[in-house]
Amino acid sequence: MADGLVLLLDAVPYLLLGVFLATGVAVIPGLGGSFALAVLLPFLLRLDPVAGIVTMMAMAAVSGTGNTITSVLFGIPGSASGVVSTFDGFPMTQRGEGVRAVAAGLSASMVGGLIGALVLGVSLPVLRPLVLALRPPELFALIVLSLVFMSFVAGADRLKALLSALLGVMLSFIGMEASTASQRWTFGDLRLWDGLQLVPVLLGVYAVAEMVFLMRRGGAIAHRPQQQRPLRQLLAGVRDTAHHWFAVLQSAAAGLWVGIAPGMGDIAAQFIGYSQVARTSKRGHLFGTGEVEGVIAADAATNSKEGGALIPTLAFGIPGSSGMAIILAGLLAFGVQPGPAMLVEYVDLVWLIIWVLALANILGALLCMGITPLLAKVTNLRGSLIVAPILVLSLLGSYSVRGAYLDVVTMLAFGVVGVLLKEFGYSRPLFLVGFVLGPLLERNYLLASRLFGPSFLLRPVVVVLLVIAVAAICWPPVAARVRRMLRARQVTARRRSGHVPR
Amino acid sequence: MDEPQRVGRHPGGLLFACCLTGLLLGMVLSAAGFNADARTVPLVIGVPALLVASLQTSREFRAFSREPRWQGHRRGIGRIRPLGTRVTPEGSSITEIDDRWPEAAGSPASVATAGVPSAAGLLWVAGLVALVGVFGILVAAPMFTAAYMRSVGRERWIAVVALSAGTPVVLHLLFTWLLDVELYRGMVGGWMPS
Q1: Is A218 within 8 Å of B79 when comparing Cβ atoms?
Q2: Which of A339, A404, A440, B95 could bond to A317 as cystine, CB 3.0-4.6 Å?
Q3: What is the pTM of this model?
């Protein structure tokens, strides 16, 4: 532990560099922190290994932090992991409490990141059986259960939420099927072989749709001027996080567990953390209308997930997320082989990574809080001043994925989809969740059926998870019917006893 | 979070549900023609999705035939106010008139700042995409910015020129110089450096 700290003290400037770079890029819609990591990795490889690893880990640690700002202030997630922050954060901005919401989200994600780093530090040696127990059948069942559970917190209309998620899953299958190279709905177009890219879909459904609604509304993003001075709102947001400490712990724990399951995705971590708190909070029924506790619940899971995702990445060489896949590539390029041997041969490096994770979270949160008041003023500007720049940035974000004009057209197409989904009461977040989890669902299903045959559905953990998913779908209508029957009996009984007039 | 804007009052909801059902039906039918591995999961997901979509369509149809006709948007002075039904957390429907939109600080209180319909908004975005396709990002961005700010926002020329002229500079510095991302040059090729 001390060796890791000594290594870090020599590399503090690189830690700061990583935090600045990731935060600066993450506040641009569509360019999440992972984008900065992917683009800058070739340059980082020219640095000294310790400096390069520190910079890389600092960028990964705060890749979700800057997302909070665009998600909350503009309703446009910087990447998929910022979607859930929009649920309560954006309504708060519209009420003139954007700075408070961002401060609450940033401090929650900072605490979540610290919890993730702490758990990483103590659990690496002991979590091996758990990670190895999560095999393709269990991951498939977990994804199915996650989709079903998420449908229950997406809004009042569960059928529309479920349909939104299933639609997203179906559209994610467009492209070439990996194992057989079969073309699915590509219509012979080579450019669709890789399928629809996540960033253009995300920007279309959120950025374009929100700007269209802003154009329709006129006025500014915030419906009211900022309710308090920025500094007061910042302090209020931090106090909110301290006040809702239990929500922070719950959400961080949920994000951690999701991060440990390889490939579950950032959005799943946020959603599950959010839904967990929504179910247990006294004000859970108000989530989605601008509850600060909802913002805290969403963001605490974001950075704690990174700590969880590092467990399979470092301990077993299995990337826990797309960002971790880039980290894995970077570590291999620096000559470090993640896996069980890393815990023995590179212990000081492991502790260095843990320290970087902890410190980068703190610095990233402080940096973002510093720039938030300035960015919050943008929400009070006239829509005509910000629509064009945001659309241009979103277009650039879409184009920069792979330099293809098709992605810009995809963004436009999904802008139409996003407008229609919101207009008719469907769930854009669930649509995106389905789109992200669809390929993982398919991959795990095919692996499971190849490794275990159809009997993979009879594995104990799979049975339990699928039964819970089916029960979660069937129970509400059954419960509603039972309640109606009981109420009807009560009314009948009261009428017979003369207490209720006909 | 996304809130339901209308519940079965507008034919648009029914039409959209029908379109979703049609899309999913097409996908399921075509998936049946893929080879074994390629069709398995699309069918496993697609068939339940089709059932859910059909259920939703029938709900929309029942609600549409039962509820009073949707009255449309009401236009207030300088603002468009939506008229719709909001579903409360308890599940009951209430009709609300949303008048929570005060004038943003500093915005001119005139009809000129009233919004544009969604379809027109999407046409603006489509126009931007088309401009980029023809002229490239560095040329299209200032053109779009100027056109939008002037025709919709009725902004003063100084603001229009400043923002339009600044846009390609910022884009070039940020993307080309700092992030080394080559910008799309469009069919015409672009005469500005990428």
Answers
A1: yes
A2: A339
A3: 0.75
